[in-house]
Amino acid sequence: MRKTASFSSVLVRYAAPILSAAAAARLLYGSGEKILRLDKFSSPADAAVLAGAFFLVFCLSLLLPVFTGYVRTFRGVLFCALPAALMLFLRVLSLSNATPDYIQFLSQWVSFFRTHGGFSALGSIVGDYNFPYLYFTAAISYLNLPDLYLIKLFSILFDVIAAWGGLKLTECLLQNGLGHPQGDIPSVPSRKAPLAAYFVLLLLPTVILNGAYWGQCDSIYAAFALFSIYFALSNRPLVSVALMAAAFAFKLQAVFVMPLFLVLLLIRKIRLRHLFLFPVVYLLFCIPALAAGRPFSAVWDIYLSQTGSYNSRLTLNAPSAMALLPQNADVELWHKIGIAAAFLFVLLLLVYLFRNRKTVSTQTLFLATLLFSLGIPLLLPHMHERYFFLFETLSVVYACAVPKRFYLPILAQGASLNGYCAYLGNSYAYPLKWSAVLLIAIFLVVLFDFWKQMQTGKPQPGRRPGAAPS
Question: Which residue in 190, 214, 378, 382 has its CB near the most CB atoms, within 10 A?
Fold first, then answer.
């Protein structure tokens, strides 16, 4: 028995990390080989530059857990090399895919900037994305590399940053006792759960499909939003507000979690003066475009035009509650009902939290954020399949902090991927209404957990409940 146990321990201690590193090396080699074989390059040197850029992203994804103290041994680095290399390889496989969104919109925006002087053309009306993303498209118009790959590389970089945000948020929740009975919080939270959240987020199917395959940029606003939530729950309101403004500057969908700040204001965890930083940061993102000649009204016109662009359909492949309605449902009527329902949901949750503010803890704040990120797009009309992206990332954080809820991100993936299939594959894997049922079931589970946490919550020690940093 001793020899067997000794052999097993030696195998795990030495052979397993070496095998992991060998598999990672093979995946890295395969990734580089596939990049060098891609078309659209004007010279082999350009392909080598792109391969080098992707290798740097791999290094970043591998070293972030090291720099944050979650991987402390060389053996741990060898183990982590495999999922890091796998996340890169899966994305490289998707690089050559060009969706209609890229062909009809993104590539046209880059082409416009390339033929109209790059940044000097920011004064023109280009596309329907907000200014920060247009700065990026203007920047890559100066480069000789294929814009399809650069657009995806930008999103992939933020995939890594968003995963890092998920790691930090999981760490914060564990430090505040989420997933542990009251009073049974470990003095040193485990490093395994945050590390698991990090790599699961890097390998999450919708995250890979969204940026690397589709060329979308939801990971950018999600990265800012995840760090914003982390700093909000860590009692650093100014940093949190600034990061949420950055998230909003990239994508309107950041509004799905912005009610968190109303909660923090009501329970006096932040002060009104902190919120004035939001428009300041947002306007800072707009200054280059305004300086180039865009009218000041464009600061809000872009998002106003987005809200009215898809009003002819109650759902655009999104597994929202609108998917339960028949195809001949009155669009105008359910448009009003959906908006009213979402508003009422937010209002009721805010009132409940305010009335029970003495028992609001970090755990309940996170669960409220999780409810907002799911409940609002679930009820609103005209949602796209990608609008549950932030909820999907938050569900992974929750499942890693509370392992008994491991099935929530699995169900969320099953629901969202059905919508992705409709756009990317031109057909649903199964009726969309059942995807909506899955999300409603998840919502009820999270709502129950939220209610249960509120019932068992206690005022946080060492500070008057709800007090904000001055």
Answer: 378
